Amino acid sequence: MRRAYVYKAFERFWHWMQAILIMFLAFTGFEIHGSLSFFGFEDAVKYHNIAASALLILIAFAIFWHLTTGEWRQYIPTSRNIKAQLDYYLFGIFRNAPHPVKKTVLSKLNPLQKLVYFGLKVLVIPVIVTSGLLYMFYRYPQRHGVEGLNIESLQAVALVHTAAAFLLAVFIIAHLYLITTGTTVLSNLRAMLTGYEDLEEEAEEKEEEAIEEAVEEPAEEISSIKNF
Ligand code: HEM
């Protein structure tokens, strides 16, 4: 095992802020929906709108960070080992089987995580943000005498927004369970708090070898062309 710096400072800040905001949005959202009662409807709407604005700002910074650091590549889905990962969560985990995919700094998400996080990023979050903004501003044009946004009724928007909220709530519950399935019960949580995690050296070495090979191959090709 080797101690590696897996989650950078901004990444951890973004992760925890996003977790807090989404849980708060779910709480206030389901109060608006009528499922629970805590702040009172009007305050729930006010707080929901404030948290939504904070989430939008956070999303803008997160997009910038992922694009500029190249970390967005971590989320490219792959079908490789997806069945093995599913088998592990359904059966292997209860028999103390080893993790089928070893975590490395350059590939810190398993194939199921890649798929689910990709789906959240390109589908669920954009849907909840767009429907939320439509919900927020649907009266806005009429209020100022402009008939630009012609939504007859909010029903479809509310339905889509609530459906996406349910999906996110299911994700949070699954995520909380899966946090405990790392090398030890607390290792994933500790890593997202401190940034550091113990990774298997073998997996790291294999990855380094693969990178070296990939870098050497084109160099060899170039020198053989030059010699020719
Ligand atoms: C940028 C993101 C978001 C925006 C702009 C937004 C905006 C809104 C607005 C304007 C409302 C209606 C308030 C009213 O009745 O006046 C609403 C309702 C609601 N929101 Fe959000 N929201 C966002 C994110 C979320 C998230 C992340 C969740 C849950 C995980 C969520 C869950 C809900 C729920 C359950 C309702 C009640 C829907 C209904 O019953 O009609 N929202 N949201």
Plain-language structure description:
- The chain is mainly alpha-helical.
- It has a single domain (2-200), classed as Fumarate Reductase Cytochrome B subunit (Up-down Bundle), CATH 1.20.950.
- 68% of the residues lie in helices and 4% in strands.
- It has 8 helices and 2 strands, in the order E-H-H-H-H-H-H-H-E-H.
- The chain has a two-stranded antiparallel ribbon.
- It starts with a strand and ends with a helix.
- The mean pLDDT is 89.
- The structure holds protoporphyrin IX containing FE.
**Level of helix content?**
55-70%
Order of helices and strands: EHHHHHHHEH
Low-pLDDT stretches are none
- Structural class of the helices, strands and pairings? mainly alpha
**CATH evolutionary superfamily:** Transmembrane di-heme cytochromes, Chain C
User: Could you please say which CATH topology applies here?
Assistant: Fumarate Reductase Cytochrome B subunit
Q: Numbering strands along the chain, what is their spatial order in the largest sheet?
A: 1-2
CATH architecture: Up-down Bundle
Q: What sort of overall outline do the alpha carbons produce when their principal axes are compared?
A: elongated
Terminal CA distance reads 45 Å
Q: What's the gist of this structure?
A:
This protein is mostly helical and 228 residues long. The protein contains eight helices and two strands, in the order βαααααααβα.
What tags apply to this protein structure?
about 230 residues, mainly alpha, Fumarate Reductase Cytochrome B subunit, two-stranded antiparallel sheet, 8 helices, 2 strands, elongated, binds protoporphyrin IX containing FE
